Amino acid sequence: MMNLTSPAVISELMAAHQLHFNKQFGQNFLIDQNILEKIVDAGHITAADTVLEIGPGIGSMTQEIAMRARRVVTVEIDKKLISVLGETLGDFDNIAIVNQDFLKTDVLDLIEGPTSLKVVANLPYYITTPIIMKLLETPWPDGIDLSRMTFLVQKEVGERICAGPGSKSYGALSVIVQYYADPAVMFTVPASVFMPRPKVDSIVISLQKRTQQAFEPCDKNQFFKVVKAAFQTRRKTVINSLSNNTAYPKAVLLDALCEAGIDPRKRAEQLDGEAFCKLANILYQKGA
Ligand code: SAM
C-alpha cells in the first residue's frame, strides 16, 4: 500500500499524472498519517458499515476507511484524480469510486441497502454547509441506517455547527444542524498538516444523526425561515430582528412571543431550538 500522506509520494503522483492542486475544488491533502488515523477513528467504523466519503483526493483516507469498513463509496468531482485513484486504490475490492459533483448526485442511487451507513470526509471548505445539509435532509429509506458523520471542516464553521445558546459562534446554522443531529467537536487540526497549507485552521466534528427530533415544527421550512430571520440582525432584540426580516406584522410577533413565553427583548443568541420551534409553530397556527 502506498504511503499517501508522504509529501514526496503526493508530489510524485501529481507529477506522474500531470496534475496541479486545484484551488477551485478546495484541494488540500492531509500529510500527517497520525491525524488521518485519528479522524478515521473518530468515525467509529465497524466491519459491517458502508462508509460514504466525499472528496477522496488521492485516496489517503479512503485506504484507511476501506481497511475497516465493509464497503466504501467515495465521490470525487475532479476527473483528473480518477486515474490516480485507480492506481492508489487498485488493490482494494470494497471501494466504489464515483466521479460526480456530490451536490448534484442522487445520493440514494449510490448506497445499496440494507446497511448501516457512516460518513467520513475531509470536506472541500467552499461547500461544507451544502454538503452537510444535503446529507441531513436526504430522506434515507428504511434499511439505510445513517448514524454517525465525521467531518474535517474549517474551524470557524465547525465551531458554529457545534455551538449552543449564549456562545458567540451560535447562530442559525447551529440551530438548523442541531435539529437533525447532535454535534460534537472532536479535535482541532493545524494548517501545517495539509499540502498545500490552507489559510485557516481546521477542526474535526462528529454529527450523530437523531433518530427522533426533540421537537417537531409544523412546517420545517417556515421554522428555518424564522430562525434565519432572527439571527439576520443578531445584535437586535428578537422582536426587532423578526419584524425587520420577516413579513409578520409586529403586533402578531409580539403576541406570538408572549404566547411562547419568550421575552421579546431577548436576542436570538439566547434562544434554543425548542423556543424557536414553539414560536414558529404559534406563528404557523395563527396563519399570519
Ligand atoms: N480526502 C483527501 C485528503 O484528506 O487528503 C482530500 C480532501 S480535499 C480537502 C477535498 C476533496 O474534495 C478534493 O479531492 C476535491 O477535488 C473534492 N471535491 C471538491 N468539490 C467536490 C464536489 N462538489 N463533489 C465531490 N468532491 C469534491
From TrEMBL:
InterPro entries membership: KsgA/Erm (IPR001737), rRNA_Ade_diMease-like_C (IPR023165), rRNA_Ade_Mease_Trfase_CS (IPR020596), rRNA_Ade_methylase_Trfase_N (IPR020598), rRNA_adenine_dimethylase (IPR011530), SAM-dependent_MTases_sf (IPR029063)
Keyword vocabulary terms for this entry: Cytoplasm, Methyltransferase, RNA-binding, rRNA processing, S-adenosyl-L-methionine, Transferase
Subcellular location: Cytoplasm
Chief place of localization: cytoplasm
SMART domains according to UniProt: rADc (SM00650)
Catalytic reaction equation(s): adenosine(1518)/adenosine(1519) in 16S rRNA + 4 S-adenosyl-L-methionine = N(6)-dimethyladenosine(1518)/N(6)-dimethyladenosine(1519) in 16S rRNA + 4 S-adenosyl-L-homocysteine + 4 H(+)
Positions of the Ribosomal RNA adenine methylase transferase N-terminal domain: 35-211
Alphabetized PROSITE patterns for the sequence: RRNA_A_DIMETH (PS01131), SAM_RNA_A_N6_MT (PS51689)
EC number: 2.1.1.182
Any one GO molecular function term: 16S rRNA (adenine(1518)-N(6)/adenine(1519)-N(6))-dimethyltransferase activity
Gene Ontology cellular-component annotations: cytosol
Binding site for S-adenosyl-L-methionine: N28, L30, G55, E76, D101, N122
Coiled-coil stretches: none
Domain of life: Bacteria
Function per UniProt: Specifically dimethylates two adjacent adenosines (A1518 and A1519) in the loop of a conserved hairpin near the 3'-end of 16S rRNA in the 30S particle. May play a critical role in biogenesis of 30S subunits.
Family: Belongs to the class I-like SAM-binding methyltransferase superfamily. rRNA adenine N(6)-methyltransferase family. RsmA subfamily.
The name this protein goes by in its record: Ribosomal RNA small subunit methyltransferase A
Organism from which the protein derives: Pseudoramibacter porci
